[in-house]
Amino acid sequence: MLTVPPVSLPSAMLFVSAAALVDREGRVLVQQRPPGKPMETLWEFPGGKVEPGETPDVALARELAEELGIGVDPSKLVPATFASEALGERHLLLLLYTLREWAGVPEARHASALRWVVPGDLRRLEMPPADLPFIAILEALL
Ligand SMILES: Nc1nc2c([nH]c(=O)n2[C@@H]2O[C@H](COP(=O)(O)OP(=O)(O)OP(=O)(O)O)[C@@H](O)[C@H]2O)c(=O)[nH]1
User: Fold this and answer.
1) Which residues form the Nudix hydrolase domain (predicted)?
2) If you count Cβ atoms within 10 Å of the first and of the last residue's Cβ in the chain, which end, N or C, has fewer?
3) Contact (Cβ atoms closer than 8 angstroms) between residue 67 and residue 109
4) Is the distance from the beta carbon of residue 13 to the nearest atom of ligand 1 less than 6 Å?
């Protein structure tokens, strides 16, 4: 008989969308989380929580405007992959998109710093655990 191991259910789901902006040399943009925030100083893809009433791509265009000061057409966001994992009491569903077209020059409005890196070099940066599988996927994709 097939038995299913017991699972502990999360108190809430956290839906987050994030973007790997890709430049003409195939580098991606990462930003450093500022001191005082959870996971401070780790490098992550710009993005944030999907608010009630938003689709993931519309939420991401809003977050990219807030965090980087760039204009993004949600239809230019291309789904790449996702991560699904426990985050404390909650469960994180992190949707990663790639983006090759935007208006303006990204600036660090929320982050401590921005950095353009080729996907292979992401391994040298400290990233949140959910992001680690993204590195090989971006290497293969870009
Ligand atoms: N934007 C972004 N968030 C990520 C990544 N990886 C990852 O685990 N996360 C997690 O997803 C959540 C993102 O939500 P958020 O950016 O709105 O949250 P926050 O804690 O920075 O800010 P806030 O709660 O003040 O709005 C955080 O818990 C963050 O640690 C990533 O690559 N990009």
Assistant:
1) 13-139
2) N
3) yes
4) no
